[in-house]
Prior knowledge:
It is a single chain. By secondary structure, this protein is mainly alpha-helical. The protein folds into two domains: 10-85, no CATH class; 89-121. It is built from five helices and four strands, in the order ββαββαααα. The protein has a two-stranded antiparallel sheet. A two-stranded antiparallel sheet has the order 3-4. Helix 1 (22-33) crosses helix 2. The longest helix has 17 residues, at 59-75. The chain is elongated, with a radius of gyration of 24 Å. Mean pLDDT is 84; it is low at 1-21.
Amino acid sequence: xxESFKFSSKxxxxxxxxxxxxxxxxxxxxxxxxGPYFTILGDDEYENIQWQIDNPPSKEEVAAEYERLNNExxxxxxxxxxxxxxxxxxxxxxxxxxxMHIGEIPKSEDFYNSILEIKNKYPKG
Length: 125
């Protein structure tokens, strides 16, 4: 590992999203220590950590865990984009039920009938 390794606190993703990664550094430390058994004085650099445990992780172990967390974040970017665009779960379920009701898709009897029972109990005005 390069001795001058420093954890980046921000990266730019897809030219439009600026993500703070300082929390990844802290999460990496907590993952390796089993909790918040450290204090960081200054920038997110290994040399600025005051450990509260007897056998702290090495600089290389911290860098590897940070990289793993960063890669996980990067590799799931599409999930965050999608979740912001999807209709609400309520809307999705309503679309599904209505498609079953008009015969566009096969009925899942338990799902369809449980919703139909409630709709019949409380009909539209």
